Amino acid sequence: MLDEMINLQNSIIPACAVVTPDTPLLQALMAMNEANKKQCLLSESPHLAENSAVYSQSPGCVLVMENEALVGILTERDTVKLAVKGQNLSQTTVKQIMTKPVITLNREEFTDVFVAYNMMRRFQIRHLPILNQQKKVLGLVTLSSLRQVLNHHHFLRFRQVSEVMTRQVMTVYPFTPVREVAQILAQYNISCIVVVVEQEGMLYPVGIVTERDILQLQALELNLQHLTAEAVMSSPLFSIKSTEPLSLAQQILQKHKIRRLAVVGEQGELQGIITESNLVQVLDPLELYGILEILERKVVQLEECRIILLTKQDLELAKALKNNEFKLYYQPQVDLKTGEIVGAEALIRWISPDKGNISPIEFIPIAENTGLIVPLGQWVLKTACTQAVDWKLAGLPPLQIAVNISAQQLEHEDFVADIIDILAQTGLDPKQLKLELTESVLVRNINLTLEKFKQLQELGIEIAIDDFGTGYASLSYIQNFLFDILKIDRCFIKDITQNHKNSAIVSAIIRLSRQLNFKVIAEGVETQLERDFLAHQGCDLIQGYLISPPLPFEQFCEFYSNRK
Q: Along the 564 residues of the chain, how does pLDDT read in single tens digits?
């Protein structure tokens, strides 16, 4: 059952500061502040962190005891009300401001997390003292400690931030006095305010002021009227996009030991805020009591099936590579000015004796997930270079061969050395080899990519960016990477003569490439109208079914000879 997966004891924060009703408020605030600091130091201890998640939790309150009995509680939210009133902290005692009576829970009644959660939600409290049979305080349960022990990652990953985030957020500008910030916190009974700057009618978060910040200022006896939000805010403010899964929000909160994240849009503008309360409220006891257990078991089952399937498919791929079941097909690339075939793109095919022809769409992702993409890619490189030399021996001119490279291949430490060895073994002129990389491959490790580009181009090998325009920040790639060829994706070529947007995009890419001395290849050309349009715009090369589908080695030689 769900209870068996959770150690309830780990949700109880044992270290709580204690004061008496007659304690001066200033002394109580200092005790609360010191308790928070102590808890943070405990959380950084590797020994304690391994033993209990609760050591990373700060209680955010002090308990008020009299004659060993719990008579009240003073929280960080109470301190905000003090800041607004401007009371003399040294002349005010705890009993004048503490919350009483205190809602508590007996340890024997604390049978599952939802008992505590329901009580906190029903009474709208954030601190729930846990008592033993003798009515002595064992510790506190908070929303933070519940979130830590529940570890509902598998459930949260099916939900998005946008589903639970708070959209109505109170904001202030950096120059707002802290006293005014405290008034807003108290008036709306909220735990934080986002500090923003305004640009072109949009608000951008730059920091956050919380109840705890107000507590620390009061404990230091600082004049809140003379301080601004900018001086006391926590910055930089951690943020997340509304489309991200809730599991990511929880990971960020746990990693940085914080309680709130700003929710931002694509341009960094403020859209809302997500707190640990939002995360805990996702856990509806009535449905989650059974659903969480089912989901966790299902996730484990699916992961086990995935591992078994990947292992089986990995073995099948490895066996296919060993048994020479893979074959290269070549799609001709034609010079638009001369109409001559000047090269070809090597495309892998799996001819399985049991399953027939298997599409690369099916087996390439498996190869990438299992790591087999590196030896498979080496086979493609060596075979393509070998057959390019064989074309020349068969009487064809020195054609340039284009080979697709995966991210794992590029990141392999011997990638450049392997290419040099293959060129030496096959005798292929490096100028006849062209490597095609997609935009997503480039950003995996920019510095490493730049260094390897330089080494390859010094050998005379050309670099082409495949599927240009389909990734992110394409123009930044042009600015930062040295390459030779842009390959326009087929999605922009289709219906280019009827689709005004496609024609405008392709024309712009060709003009830009001409100014930057890049060659342009258009792939997926299927009609004469598309070819004529590209020729008129000044495109250098084309490939597609208008010229020929991908062909096996022998048929490619025959196709070239007949075309001549």
A: 444 445 678 888 886 789 999 998 888 888 888 876 665 544 444 444 444 444 445 678 899 999 989 999 998 888 777 766 666 777 888 998 888 889 999 998 887 777 887 888 788 888 999 999 888 999 999 877 876 776 555 456 557 888 889 998 999 999 999 889 988 988 888 889 999 999 988 999 999 998 888 877 777 777 777 889 998 898 878 999 998 988 888 889 888 888 899 999 999 999 999 987 787 666 554 444 444 555 566 666 666 666 666 566 667 888 888 888 899 999 999 999 999 999 999 999 988 888 888 888 888 888 888 788 899 999 999 999 999 999 988 888 999 999 999 888 888 889 999 999 999 999 999 999 999 988 767 766 677 778 888 899 999 999 998 877 665 545 666 766 778 898 988 888 988 988 888 899 899 989 988 888 889 999 999 999 999 999 999 999 999 999 999 999 999 999 998 876
Per-state percent for the chain, helix, strand, coil, to nearest 5? 50, 25, 25
Calculate the alpha carbon distances from 211 to 128, 153, 191, 194, 347 in Å. 18, 28, 6, 12, 61
Task: Write out the H or E segment, with its range, that includes residue 318.
Answer: helix 285-322
Dihedrals phi, psi of 196, to nearest 5 degrees: -130, 160
Q: Please report, as a single letter, which amino acid is at residue 239.
A: S
Q: Which CATH superfamily is domain 157-283 in?
A: CBS-domain (3.10.580.10)
CATH number among 3.40.50.150, 3.20.20.450, 3.40.190.80, 3.40.640.10, domain 324-562:
3.20.20.450
Distance of CA 141 to the CA centre of its chain: 31
Residue-range domain boundaries for the chain? 8-152, 157-283, 284-320, 324-562
Burial of 216 (0-12, 13-18, 19+ CB in 10 A): buried
Classify domain 8-152 at the CATH topology level.
CBS-domain (3.10.580)
Close Cβ partners of 149 (under 8 Å, ≥ 6 residues apart): 6, 7, 8, 10, 11, 53, 54, 113
- The DSSP code sequence of 217-270 is HHHTT--GGG-BHHHH-B-SPPEEETTSBHHHHHHHHHHHT-SEEEEE-TTS-E
- pTM reported for the whole predicted model: 0.49
